[in-house]
Every structure is written in C-alpha cells, then in structure tokens.
Automatic annotation (TrEMBL):
One of its GO terms (molecular function) is manganese ion binding. Residues 323-330 form the Cytosol aminopeptidase domain. One of its GO terms (cellular component) is cytoplasm. Belongs to the peptidase M17 family. The keyword Protease applies. GO terms for biological process: proteolysis. Pfam families: Peptidase_M17 (PF00883), Peptidase_M17_N_1 (PF21337). It comes from the Bacteria. This is Leucyl aminopeptidase. Coiled coil: none annotated. Keywords: Aminopeptidase, Hydrolase, Manganese, Protease. The keyword Hydrolase applies. It comes from Albimonas donghaensis.
Amino acid sequence: MTDPERPALPMAERLADPAEADAAIPLRLVPSDGLDAALEALPEAQRAWARATDFKGRLGQTCLLPAPDGTLSAVLFGWGDAKARARSRLDLGRAAESLPAGTFALDASAAPGAGTESALAWLIGRLRFTRYKSAKLAPARLIAPAGVDADETHRIADGVALTRALIDTPAEDMGPAEIEAAARALAADHGATVEVIAGDALLEANYPMIHAVGRAAAPGREPRIIALDWGPKDAPAVTLVGKGVAFDTGGLNLKPGASMGLMKKDMGGAAQALGLARIAMASGLKARLRVLIPAVENAVSASSFRPSDVLTSRKGLTVEINNTDAEGRLVLADALARGDEDAPGLMLCFATLTGAARVALGPELPPFYTDDDALAGALAEASAAVRDPIWRMPFWDGYEAQIEPAIADLDNAPSGGMAGSITAALFLRRFVEKAGAFAHFDVYGWTPAARPGRPRGGEAQAIRACWAVLSARYGTGAA
C-alpha cells in the first residue's frame, strides 16, 4: 500500500441519467410465460431472429436484436418463471457483465417490481477487483429505471464495493494497519472520528485477549482495536462490531494448507461492518454510530498464545484456550464487552466465525443469532424484501454447559465438534448484557463460484438486510 494513511476507497459505477433515455438501447425483461406477447410486439425480422436464436425467455438468457443497418436495436433478457426466480437473485447482473458497450434503458413492464433489484444487480455485477489485474468489461451503462431511488442504490452499491475490495485484498496488503487505514479513510469521507489502541497499549487499556491473539505478529502488524464514531451524541446508539483477523494461520494449532488458502478473508466481519457503516453514514442515518474492529493477525512465533493457556478477558471472565484456531471469538469478546459498556440500543456483530455455519447452511445463507424476537422478525422480513439471505439460528441454552470448562469460566473450543456455530454464538453472548438488542451474524464473506451480480471473491452478506432494518428503525437524513 503506497499510502496506508489515506487509501482510496472503491466506488461502484453510477446509473446513467434518465435524460439519456431517448438515445438508449431498450433492455426488455421477458418472463418465459410472456414470451409470445413479447415476440409479437417485435418487427417481423426481429421476431424471426429471436426465434432463430432459440430465445425462450429462460432466466438469464440474452438475445441481441439487430436494426436493419446492423446496429444493436434492443436486447431481450430472459426473466424465467416464478420458480426460476425464486432459486436465483440479482439476475440482471448477467447482462451487466456480458452486454456490449452502450447505454441501456430497462423495460421491466412485463416484470413489475423488478427495477430496484435489477439496478443494484447491474451496479454490483460490474464490480471488479482491479488492484492487481485490470477488468475486461465493456463500457455498458444502465439508465436509472423509473421509480428507483438512484442515490440509495449508489450508496448500497458503494458499501458492497468496499466490503468486497477489503476481503479480496491479500493479507500482505491488508494487515491490521491497513484495516485501520481503511477505517480512517472512511471516517475522513464522512466526518467521523477514529481512535486506535495498538500493541502493548492494549494491555494498559484492558483489551487482553485482543493482545494475546495478535502479539505473535511481525513488527508493523501489531494487534489493535479500532473505534470509529459518527453522528450526534444524543441520537440513539447503534454499535457495529466486526472481526478483523487479517490472516489466520490457526496459531500453534496450525491449519493445514487446504484450510489456510482463503484465510485472507478472515477479516470479512470487519469488512461487513465497514461496508454497512459506509451506507449508514452516506445516508445520514439518524443514530449515533460506533464501529469497533479488533484487528489482529493470528500468527506463529515464540510469543504465540498456547493451548491450555487461560486468558482473562476485558469483562473479567476467564477463558481456557483449547484451540488457538478459535481466536475470532476471543478478539470479538473484548470488542463486544467494550461496545456493551455504552449500553447501545442495538449492537450487531459480524464475523467469519465458524466452518460449522457453512456445513449447516452453505456459503450464501449466513445464520444469525438473537434473543430479541422483534429484531429477528424485522431482519427476516428485510432479508426477504431485499433478497439478502440470512437465517435465524437459536441461542440454545441447553448447550451452555459445553462452553464451561473445568478450570476457567469459558472454553474457547468445546470438544466434540457438534453445534459449533451455536456454541460460538453462546460464547459471544456472555459478553453482552447492557445492549438493548443484540444480533450476531456468522458470515462466510465469499462467493466460491461466480453467480449473477456476484463475481467470485469477497462478498457482502447480511448488510443489505441490516441496512433495511436500520433505516426503517431510525430514519435517514439523505435527500
């Protein structure tokens, strides 16, 4: 990183101005059950062309219609049937990646309500991580569809862009100091303040577990707690906490190579929190926002913390270390305890925490945990509305005994391997008492294979659903 003090934050492309619509190429959504009507509306030559190219309106199918002079006259984009659309999302992202250069005007008259998601799908489908390799997308632009809040779409797409780029950056260029630099750049963009406590000062400030996990890292990659604050002090308090493990070797319980390959994304929780904060601040959320990121590297050296060590947390609870590869919950515990001291009305925690969550629900359906039924209902409703998948899992009290070892208050890695995502969530809950409502998201933060609107790589998960809840609860000041 050439300037770790002020990196440029990525931004999504912008939708084209509706004033350009008269010169734009029509992009028509065609449901499979509306195929005949769509074809009948075409000139005879174009209708024959669509049939000759076997356009059936299947979801994601594209047909480029030529004008008599050979130029591009219109595009038909298959919208499939209800079953196909229920199994997919962000489908216009396919067109955003594949269409030739030009300005396109979306015609969603045959697919009511598709405009808002399609506009977002277009923008985030065109996001590419270009720090080390240039992108090869044609300069295609989409006119802001009628009825779509273009500014809101841009803010959300920018939040996704930041989250993806932070996760995609390799650990060599995204260590604890660079995570801090990204937070400082975000704060500078929105008039927020940032306070950082790093290295041995963590012990003096009572963040002992953040220090223990990160103390083995090389000079320049010292552990730290990053606190970003924004908004009026008398506004309702909202705290976001994100796991910022820049790279996770597993510590002395060293991961095998196959499990270490994607560990640059172990700071994905921090990336989600910063992406959500970017949306909130740009939108003028009517809240006092605090973002807490414990940023560490779980490295191996003579100073590494060890299995069987007992650590004392910020909250005073002692933790027996039965696996140094269960480090994320340790650093989150200190950060959550700090956030809880302010008794915020709402505290949200994001972390790439357990493989057990992926075994249970796969890579694109993050579980979340909360004891607040009203919050759970709002999150579920928002998830369905904006098609940002999350699934509620239980804080199952029957498993509490599993995180209580013989010689300390808590066990960071219960033996047996069962209910791993639940026991990790129960561990975190022990550090939250004063917050009005609390939810923990066990995200994957990665798209393993390219999907519509989602290139392979780092991914924003749960933040669009969370933003829908935050904006509905507190309101915004954006024009």
